[in-house]
Amino acid sequence: MNNKIVHHLSHTDLDGYSCQLVMKYTPYRLLNYNANYGAEVKQTLELILQNIINDNKSATILITDLNLTSDESRWLNNEITKLNENKKDITLLLLDHHGTGEDSAQKYDWYFLDTSRSATKITYDYVKENFEFNEPFWMEKFVNIVNAVDLWKMEEKDNFEYGKVCMRLVGETRELNKIMFADVDNNYKISLLLEATKYIDEENAPIVLDEKIHMLKKEFFKKDKNDTLDNLVTEYIVKLLGEAKDEKTIYYKGYRGYLSYGVGNTSIIGNGFLLTYPEYDFIVDVSYRGTISLRANNKVSVSQISKEWTGGGGHPNAAGGRIIGFKEQFRYDLVKKQIQKIINEKESVAGELEFKKES
Questions:
Q1: Under DSSP, is residue 203 helix (H, G, I), strand (E, B) or coil?
Q2: What is the dihedral of CA 272, 275, 281, 283, to 10 degrees?
Q3: Which of 70, 179, 221, 323 to pair with 212, CA 20 to 30 A apart?
Q4: Terminal-to-terminal C-alpha distance of the chain
């Protein structure tokens, strides 16, 4: 495994991100992914396989804190086998503690299951035994904290109480969208957990961390000057949107638009984007349920776009609607395919979009 890239898929809770924090102290090149259960797991694994194929290098897929169904395990095992038969070099390792994975664990030697430990502790113990590991002094304490709260060991009072705050630190960290900004969101959460390790030995440690959460979040987003968390996050997200312009630009009837997914807060973030990047005529944010929110800045009537796309409407600079039959996705490229299909269908409709002259 030493010379391979590790594609590390983990859960979206404290235990899942803590597994990735443990792996941060190995010497391997890590590409982190996070998914919740259901269709998100399969879509993310498909993305990992595609990235490995495109990269055309030896790789390890590491899955932690996620149990695979029998069908998912069979599918993944078959995909890896086929790739290796075609002279790829891919290894697979799953470290988990959910009893629902027992059937798969009995069938596949790459599936390691232990219901007595959290996934973080399993990963920590496995890494110490099998990988090169530059373990920081706080690691074992932090692992025991995660283990206590994830397995609900209330008798370990100090660890349990600190773990509860860490759990909320991750669970209520929703400033970034993990589909639009997967790498940055992952780094954000792991950075916060890393900061949390600094207060483990403080007197009244859970209270200390609880009171510092707001400050820790602001420090991540702060660049030059202090501001409210909302303003710092907005500026940060607008910058991220701008850095991804090449991938996320769409065109409709000659107008340049920006497609985001699940970002929300379109009135503030959308308008902030249009002011920062005036070369765009409109921005549209699609929610996970298929509602769309459009904003413009006196260059095109988004109420007409909404009407043509969804039968919705609104004002020339602010409109919305709902895409009938929208299928929730956990990858941006699959969302863009759905929207591009709508654009292709509607572009042939007669009529031009209305201008709204700049005042």
A1: coil
A2: -10
A3: 179
A4: 62
Q: How many domains does the chain have?
A: 2
Find the domain containing 258 and state its range.
245-346
CA distances from 168 to 20, 24, 213, 240 (A): 17, 22, 10, 25
SS3 349: coil
Cα–Cα dist 77/289, whole Å = 32
Does residue 118 sit in helix, strand or coil?
A: coil
Which residue's entry shows tokens 């664990």? 105
Percentage of the chain lying above the pLDDT 90 cut: 86
Q: Model confidence over 110-125: pLDDT tens digits?
A: 999 999 999 999 999 9
Cβ neighbours of residue 331 under 8 Å, at least 6 residues apart?
A: 43, 44, 47, 179
Same domain flag for 274 and 311:
yes
CA-nearest of 266, 272, 251 to 353 is 251
> Do 265 and 156 share a domain, yes or no?
no
Residue 240 lies in a domain: no
SS3 353: coil
264 backbone φψ class: left, alpha, beta (φ>0; ψ -120 to 50):
left
Q: Write the pLDDT tens digit of every residue in 118-157.
A: 999 999 999 999 999 999 999 999 999 999 999 999 999 9
Separation CA 131–CA 127 (nearest Å): 5
H helices of 108-181, in order, are 119-130, 139-150, 157-171
Return d(Cα 67, Cα 37) in angstroms, integer.
9
Residue 190 reports pLDDT greater than 60: yes
Q: Which of 241, 244, 222 is nearest to 233 (CA)?
A: 222
E strand segments, 203-322: 249-252, 255-261, 282-286, 291-296, 313-315, 318-322
DSSP 196: H
Distance (Å) of CA 218 to CA 192, 213, 320, 342: 11, 9, 31, 39
pTM of the model: 0.92
Residue carrying the six token digits 């759905």 = 338
Look up residue 66 and give its DSSP letter.
-
